[in-house]
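Budget justification aside, the reviewers requested a transparent look at the raw inputs and outputs of the sequence design task funded under Objective 1. We therefore reproduce one unedited record. The lines immediately below are the structure tokens for a 119-residue chain.
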């Protein structure tokens, strides 16, 4: 049995990609994309190019994250200490821990000094 003409055409001719199928694959929900682009444009116009406070802080101040899983204190006892120093510069936080009467404050102070030296 001789091969049919359709099988020889498909084997020798390059595959043509359907633009509609490609567009659907690259942009599955074009309406949602247009809506998102419009929303972002409106947001930038409303803010008049100004940065939010959080973005401004992130651009100007350095930040460093240090974690320790070996503090011999419960989370319940560390919570008030963490709230006391949250958002403060490292030197102010160390001073706060130095004058805190809590026993856990000594461990936190050591950890803060270690983090300051590592940064």
């Amino acid at each position: 049995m001789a091969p049919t003409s359709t099988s020889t055409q498909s084997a020798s001719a390059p595959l043509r990609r359907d633009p509609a199928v490609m567009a659907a694959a690259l942009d599955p929900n074009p309406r949602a994309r247009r809506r998102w682009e419009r929303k972002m444009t409106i947001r930038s116009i409303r803010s008049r190019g100004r940065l939010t406070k959080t973005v401004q802080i992130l651009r100007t101040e350095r930040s460093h994250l240090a974690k320790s899983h070996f503090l011999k204190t419960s989370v319940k006892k560390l919570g008030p200490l963490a709230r006391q120093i949250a958002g403060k510069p490292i030197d102010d936080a160390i001073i706060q821990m130095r004058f805190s009467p809590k026993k856990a404050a000594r461990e936190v102070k050591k950890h803060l000094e270690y983090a300051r030296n590592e940064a």
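The CA atoms of residues 76 and 82 lie 10 Å apart. Helices lie at 5-12, 19-26, 30-47, 53-60, 75-85, 90-98, 104-118. Computational costs for records of this kind are itemized in the attached budget.
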